[in-house]
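Form 7-S
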Amino acid sequence: MTFLKSADLERFLGEASKTRTVYVPVDVEPKKSAYRRWTPGTAVSKGLKTARSAKDFFFPQTENLVGFRIENGKIRILDPREEQEDFAVFGVRACDARSFGILDKVFLAEPVDTYYQNRRAHGLILTMTCRRPAETCFCTAFGIDPASPGGDVVFTETADGWYVEAVTDAGREFLAPMADLFEDRDESGREAAKEETRAIMEKLPLAGLSTDAFGGGRTKALFDRPEWASLSEACIGCGTCTFVCPTCQCYDIRDYDTGHDVRRFRCWDSCMYSDFTKMAGGNPRLTQKERFRQRFMHKLVYFPENNGGEFGCVGCGRCLASCPIHMNIVKVMKTLSEGQDEQ
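Output:
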């Protein structure tokens, strides 16, 4: 089995950066990391996951879609797109790796979003198992195994390095020129590391979280539940949960007059905002309760209804850690599940 020693990580990233731009998680504040471009000497974070997910690489917070300029009485269309660079994202956890598949169902369905498609075609996902899952993790509730994260290349972490396995053809092609960096080790070490991760997950506070009360076909049972009022009462509509979420895909499109031309931008939006879905005729969701309900019904009912039962949450726990009033999808699920049992 192929193994990369911890001492050789710098060499590995250096070799990888010869063929594509490499991004790694870097500590930017105490207990907070973010993806940054790797350069020699960059220290890779040892934290569990980044404050914001790797979604940004494929669906950035803001992007210039198109421009318009009037020349000689005619409108000239300005295409801002450039050839996308080949890149690799190192250290992606299982929850974020699953989120890409969810986003694919949205942006690669007809009509295909070519901006997203272009980035996906040029991106390589180097995943890493979770050796020390956090108490806020609940990915297993959605059928995700943090010991088998998928992606193009899987790094199974041990005390002194990583077992490295190429999963896709792109991953095998990526690793081929770096064969001399790896050593052979017995596969038993990898399996032992995976079992340690799974054992930790079974002991976490959210290990027993159930999705039985949710899924496609549950709209009628859940939509008018009285608990939505109390659950949403403290929500301030800040949108933090949507901005740290690896699967939220809502966006707004705005045109800006630069004085020379008009630029059309796409930027993240949030269903928690009061002007979300606002139209000339008004807003169909006038209260925070309705907006709050929309977010969680989409994750737990609407999305699985239209996507073969797959939920729109990956259990990364970022909303648990980020919400200023400590409201999150876990509390929603537990509250509605308990109420369902009583009915």
